[in-house]
Amino acid sequence: MKSDTQPVSIREARNRILAEIGDGVTLVAASKRQPEDRIEKALEAGQLVFGENRVQEAQQRWTDRLSRDAGLELRLIGPLQTNKAEDAVQLFHVIETLDREKLLRALVKAIEKTGVAPPDLLIQVNTGDEPQKGGVSVDGLADLVAATRETYPGKLVGLMCIPPAGEPAAPHFALLKKLADEHKLARVSMGMSGDYALAARLGATHVRIGTAFFGARDA
Ligand SMILES: *Cc1c(COP(=O)(O)O)cnc(C)c1O
Question: Engineered SS bond to 75: which of 19, 48, 71, 94, CB 3.0-4.6 Å?
């Protein structure tokens, strides 16, 4: 018998999350600052979709694994600087954090230069209008969608948000889903460890989960 104090395994946590979010929603394992043994456990449990916040950390962790396992999908969920665009388009299958035209231009150039298949893009929307947070403003979204559709050689597939900490997330999730519908974007990335079930109910297609999946992160 398993005692109540034993932490749940990554496999158990994953199964519980998958049951909660249902079939139509993809679990993105947010693996930033997680130890290697937990990444291995996640892979053993069948997890194939991972989100990373930093290009360099992701390169170190995933370059070899990507060359061995064609089923992996790597998603950039953290802010991207233009000088990392070339590395990012070569590593990630999906970039969730496009938020400005300057970055769009850098991505287009990086794809031309490297010749890689263009990653799918999501635009990050700063639904809470927080000055310190990445994401295009709600007012600026239409222009960025138009510019992306005009100039990006790959696909714009959806929107992503990180609601302000300490505020109810539901209005932000509802707003992001509404904006995605208005712009005919099928993918909606929202919901983290504390609120993924709510996000799934409000239309998320992708939830990004770190601690509820892996356990607490390294400092
Ligand atoms: C860290 C992170 C997550 C996961 O956060 P948890 O609260 O650990 O689930 C999701 N999205 C982004 C953008 C993150 O940086």
Answer: 94
- Whether ligand 1 lies within 6 angstroms of the CB of 79 is answered as no
Name the domain count of the chain.
1
CA–centroid distance, residue 207 to ligand 1 (Å): 9
Q: If you take atom 11 of ligand 1, which residue's CA is the nearest one? A: 208
Nearest-atom index, ligand 1, CA of 77: 13
Residue range 106-120: average pLDDT?
98
Contact 127, 138 (CB under 8 A): yes
Whether 3 has a pLDDT exceeding 60, the answer reads no
- Cβ of 32 below 6 Å from ligand 1: yes
Give the range of the structural domain holding residue 90, as residue numbers without chain letter: 10-214
The CATH number of the domain holding residue 77 is 3.20.20.10
Query: Residue range 59-64: average pLDDT?
Result: 97
* Full-model pTM: 0.96
Q: Is residue 2 pLDDT above 50, yes or no?
A: no
Atom of ligand 1 nearest to the CA of 212: 9
Nearest residue to 190 (alpha-carbon basis) of 215, 165, 172: 172
